[in-house]
Specification:
With 302 residues, the protein is an all-beta fold. The protein has one domain: 6 Propeller (Neuraminidase), CATH 2.120.10.30. Helices cover 2% and strands 51% of the residues. The longest helix has 6 residues. The protein is globular, with a radius of gyration of 18 Å. The chain binds beta-D-glucopyranose and calcium ion.
């Protein structure tokens, strides 16, 4: 592992070794979320309509087919999971399925996309324009009583979401803006204010996708089209990059008992036959040791 300074203004590779946790992989692997209660990692294959659960203790990866394209799967404090379909959020506990908690359920031009829980047990979930170009999507907050509040409109592809260790800052990516933005966040009320740019993601051919925040308050941002991830300091400075042999890196999350394993999802969908041949790991779930621990994944309190 090499850690080099950023004094030149260009972050150098921090780490490019990894393990393959799950192969063969997904068409569009997304949304890794560590479920501490079960010691497993939830993730999804969006177009395959599959919720995956990976158990690092024995290396098994089980899949649950759901009714439609599935954009996220989050742990729930009372057991089971919450998952996102184009019509909103659905709850699954054992065989019992409840839903949807409607989110743009009547909109044929959008679907839910990335989402995460805050420390108060709310879900924050965004939508995306199916044409990936029109600013017709939004970001919502779903409280534990299932009340849905619109928190941001005019987005195009709502992606990475996360909080600073104190919970006072909320990070958000609308992928086509090629920025990470930051808001002041009141976790008591769930209100956001003072949107500003946190970092510009200047990687040729790439847009920022999912993100996670580590225990040092730094952000790990998956680069869709950028062959890896960028790490940003709490001040928004690019401090490290990770290079992977997969072009479309979609999201990341720390997991494991000590939260020191960085799980990274990737995408095979949309690659040409020759690109697929050159990227045999596209779609796989990867695991990296980047020398730092993550923050616990919060679970939905509803
Ligand atoms: C979406 C994809 C999109 C990608 C890059 C993902 O979160 O699910 O459909 O192409 O972001 O913007
Ligand atoms: Ca995403």
């Amino acid at each position: 592992m090499t850690r080099r300074s950023n004094r030149s203004g260009v972050a150098k590779p921090l780490y490019s070794e990894f393990e393959v946790a799950v192969a063969p992989g997904a068409q569009l692997g997304e949304g890794p979320r560590w479920d501490a209660a079960t010691g497993t990692l939830l993730w999804v294959d969006i177009p395959a309509k599959l919720v995956h659960r990976y158990d690092p203790t024995d290396g098994t990866d089980t899949t649950k087919p759901v009714a439609d394209v599935v954009s996220l799967a989050l742990p729930r404090r009372k057991g089971g999971i919450v998952f996102g379909l184009p019509d909103g959020l659905h709850l699954l506990n054992g065989r019992r399925s409840i839903g949807p908690v409607a989110i743009e359920a009547d909109r044929p031009d959008t679907r839910t996309n990335d989402g995460a829980c805050d420390a108060a047990g709310r879900i924050w979930v965004g939508t995306m324009a199916l044409d990936e170009r029109s600013p017709v999507a939004a970001l919502y907050r779903v409280d534990p009583d299932y009340a849905v509040t619109t928190v941001l409109t005019g987005t195009t592809i709502s992606n990475g979401l996360g909080w600073s260790p104190s919970g006072r800052l909320f990070y958000f990516i609308d992928s086509p803006t090629r920025r990470v933005d930051v808001f002041d966040c009141d976790l008591g009320t769930g209100e956001l204010e003072n949107r500003r740019r946190f970092a510009a993601v200047e990687v040729e051919g790439a847009v920022p996708d999912g993100l996670t925040v580590d225990a040092e308050g730094c952000l790990w941002v998956a680069l869709h089209g950028g062959w890896g991830l960028n790490r940003y300091s709490p001040e928004g400075e690019l401090v490290a990059t990770v290079t992977l042999p997969v072009e479309r890196v979609t999201s990341c999350c720390f997991g494991g008992d000590d939260l020191r394993d960085l799980y990274v999802t990737t995408r095979r969908e949309g690659l040409s036959a020759s690109e697929r041949a050159a990227q045999p790991l596209a779609g796989c779930l990867l695991r990296l040791d980047v020398g730092v621990a993550g923050l616990p994944t919060d679970a939905f309190a509803g």
